[in-house]
Design brief:
It is a single chain. With 161 residues, the protein is mostly beta strands. It has a single domain, classed as Immunoglobulin-like. Helix content is 7%, strand content 35%. It contains two helices and ten strands.
């Protein structure tokens, strides 16, 4: 038999409490954002596809300066073939808890898996302007959205250089 010091209990609980998971590839399950969905989640309408070709990637990030658009810091990612209806597609992005998040979308028009600045499009939550001068990366403060305990709806308008 062994004893656990009461002073070590908070440390032990921290060790077994799961942190915010990073890097989960998920399917676009619109039922998670449906009428009876509990959330928390973001229902994202992506508009303005320049062509009905290629692939689209939607990623959710914690809205912190260190995590926003950092390699490998995304929480959930949906990669799918572009199939717009009237130039738009809808995505459901579940989040681990209510809070602040940023969402990034990339339209890879030729589906080659590379960013072709002159052809591919992109957009972010809150629709901040992007340009060649900020390399298409707005600050986290411009892109952060507050997500409540239910389903939060946003629209992202794609921009092309």
């Amino acid at each position: 038999m062994f004893k656990v010091s009461v002073g070590l209990l908070p440390v032990a609980l921290l060790a077994i409490t799961p942190a915010m998971a990073h890097g989960q590839k998920i399917n676009n399950d619109l039922d998670l954002c449906g009428v009876s969905a509990k959330g928390p989640a973001v229902l994202v309408d992506v508009r303005g596809f320049a062509a009905p070709t290629g692939k689209v990637r939607v990623q959710t990030y914690p809205a912190t300066k260190n995590a926003w658009l950092a390699k490998g810091a995304w929480l959930n990612r949906i990669d799918t073939v572009v199939q717009p209806s009237n130039g738009a597609m809808r995505f459901c992005m579940p989040v681990p808890e209510a809070g602040r998040y940023g969402i990034a979308v990339r339209h890879d028009r030729n589906g080659n898996g590379k960013t072709d600045i002159s052809r591919d499009g992109g957009g972010f939550s809150n629709n901040p302007s992007i340009s060649i001068f900020n390399l298409g990366k707005p600050s986290v403060e411009k892109a952060a959205v507050r997500v409540g305990p239910g389903v939060t709806r946003i629209t992202i308008n794609l921009q092309y250089m």
